[in-house]
User: What shape does this take?
Amino acid sequence: MPRANSSREGVLDAFEQIVIEQGERVATLSAVAEQAGVSKGGLLYHFSSKQALVDGLLERLVELVEADLEWLGEGPESVVERFIRSSTLDGSSLDRTFTALARIVQSTDHPDIRPALARVEAAWYELVLAEVGDPDVARLVVLASDGLYFRGVLDPQAPQPDAADIDRMVQTLGRLVAKD
Amino acid sequence: MPRANSSREGVLDAFEQIVIEQGERVATLSAVAEQAGVSKGGLLYHFSSKQALVDGLLERLVELVEADLEWLGEGPESVVERFIRSSTLDGSSLDRTFTALARIVQSTDHPDIRPALARVEAAWYELVLAEVGDPDVARLVVLASDGLYFRGVLDPQAPQPDAADIDRMVQTLGRLVAKD
DNA sequence: GTCTATACATGGATAGAC
DNA sequence: GTCTATCCATGTATAGAC
Assistant: This one.
C-alpha cells in the first residue's frame, strides 16, 4: 500500500483546525470540506458521517499519546519539567488533537471520547507520580498542567506562557519535590 | 415592580442546565423551552434570540462574581483554602454559570464572553496573590484551581474530589506558602 | 476518488391568536 | 405573557455522474 491516504489526513487536519480556532459549531461538513480543499461529496467519501470524522480524531489521539508517553519517559530532564513544558499549547500534534476532542466532547455527548481522555490523564499522572513519589504533589503537578491546558482550550489565541514562566513554575513545583 | 421575572430566570436556569449536562449543541430553543416548561414562543417573549439567552447568562455571571469575590475575602480561613475548595463544581450558582459560559465560548465565537471570563480569572489571581505574596505560588494556586475546573467542565458527571482530597491539596500548597 | 444535485430534518425566528 | 402555526436557512446525508 502507498501512503496513509493524504487527502484523508488533510480532512482530519481541517476538522481539527476549525474546531480549535472557531469552535465545534463552525466545523460543519461544508466548512471542513472547503478548508481541506475538497467538496462535501469528496469529504464524505473518506468519512461517511460526522461521527466518522470524530472517530478519526480519536484514533489519531491514541497513536499520538503512545508516542508522547514514550517521549516523556526518556531524556535527561525530569518528567515534571517535560510535562509542564508540553502542557502549554505549542501547537504540537497531540496538543491539537487533545484540544479538539476536549471541545467536541463538551458540545454534545460523545460517550467514547470521555474515557479516552480520562485514560490519557491517568497515564500522565502515573508517570509523574513515579518520579515525584508523593501522590499529593503529583496530583498538584497534573492539575497545574490541566490548568494550563484549560486556558489554552478556553482561548487558543491567548498568549501562551513563555519559557521563563514555565521555568518558574517548574522551580516552584520543585520546591515541593525537594522537601519530601 | 414585582419581582425579577421568575419565568425568565427559569428559562435561564434551563439553558444553563442543558449546556452543562448535555452540551451546547443540545441546548436548542425547543429543548430549553421544554426544560423550562414553556413553549418556544413563550421563551422568545423573554429572550428574543439565542444571543439574548447568552447575554442573560453573562449578566448573571457578573452579578454572581461580585458576590463571590466579597465572600472569598471575608471569613477566618485563608483565601487559598476557600478558593481551592470552591473551585470544585459543587453546583453553586457561580460554578454553574461559569461552566456553562466556558462551554458556550468554546462552541463558537462569542467575543463578549472571553474577556468576561478572563477578568474573573484575573480578579481571583489578585486576591490569592494578596494573601500568599509570591506571584509564582499564586499562579500555581490559580492554575491548580483551573485544573479542577477543567475536569469539571470536561465531565460534570465525574466524581468530584471530596473534602479530604481538598484538604490535602490545600496542605500541599500550604507547604509552599509557609516556606516563603 | 471526487464532484454536483438533491432530499430530508431541524434549528432559529416571525406572525398573530388567545 | 404564553401559545400555535409557519417560514426560512442551514446542516447532514444520499444518489448518481464523471
